Backbone:
């Protein structure tokens, strides 16, 4: 009996690890599909953008971001539906949920990885009926940087 239970636990664990998607998996799987735009902005580009900006709110945060990846799906309901199914299995291990919203067929999820008092990675997932977006920010910033940015857009 113990062997059967152990085999079932192993099978379930294996199945869950196969179906769980990482952020990298989602980018790799969907970046080349129709009506999908995928953009990466490395540290060098972030530094150039920061240098061109005057002393505006949000400029301090831009200096602290090392890398941005954006995946946007528009005008392709089939791909958006597939993306939503895969995103539902997103492996959140190591992430903390900063925000989770589910209103009128629109879902938004913000996950963060932290190290000490700093956020080292932020993942933003926005799902609408015909549009989906995945944004990944990597760097070393804190919640005050984000609060300052929020007041800029409010």
Residues:
């Amino acid at each position: 009996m113990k062997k059967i239970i152990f085999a079932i636990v192993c099978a379930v664990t294996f199945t869950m690890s196969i179906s769980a998607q990482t952020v990298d998996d989602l980018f790799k799987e969907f970046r080349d599909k129709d009506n999908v735009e995928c953009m990466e902005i490395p540290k060098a580009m972030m530094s150039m953008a920061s240098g061109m900006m005057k002393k505006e709110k949000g400029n301090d945060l831009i200096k602290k971001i090392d890398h941005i990846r954006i995946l946007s799906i528009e005008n392709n309901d089939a791909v958006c539906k597939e993306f939503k199914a895969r995103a539902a299995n997103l492996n959140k291990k190591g992430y903390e949920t900063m925000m989770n919203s589910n209103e009128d067929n629109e879902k938004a999820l913000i996950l963060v990885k932290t190290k000490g008092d700093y956020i080292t990675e932020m993942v933003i997932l926005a799902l609408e009926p015909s549009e989906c977006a995945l944004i990944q920010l990597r760097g070393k910033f804190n919640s005050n940087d984000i609060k300052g940015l929020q007041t800029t857009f409010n």
